[in-house]
Amino acid sequence: MNEEKHVTVGSYIGSRLAEAGVRHYFAVPGDYNLILLDELLKNDSLTMISCCNELNAGYAADGYARANGVAAQVVTF
Hints:
With 77 residues, this protein is α/β, with parallel strands linked by helices. It has three helices and three strands; from the N terminus they run αβαβαβ.
C-alpha cells in the first residue's frame, strides 16, 4: 500500500529555496507568517536571519545578494 507523504506549503517552499541555492533568508516574524516560518525552520539547509522591520530586512537581503551573487528571500508579515 502506498503511503502519502504530508507536504505543507511551507515545507515545499523551503525545499524549493534550498534546491535553488538559497541558504539564508531574512525574515520579520509576525502573526501572519509564523506557520510558514515554523516550516522553513525545519529545513536544515536554510538559516533564518531575523530582522526588526521590513526596511532592515530589505536592505540586508539586498546587501547579501550583492555580496554573494545569489538572491536572498525576504519574508514579512
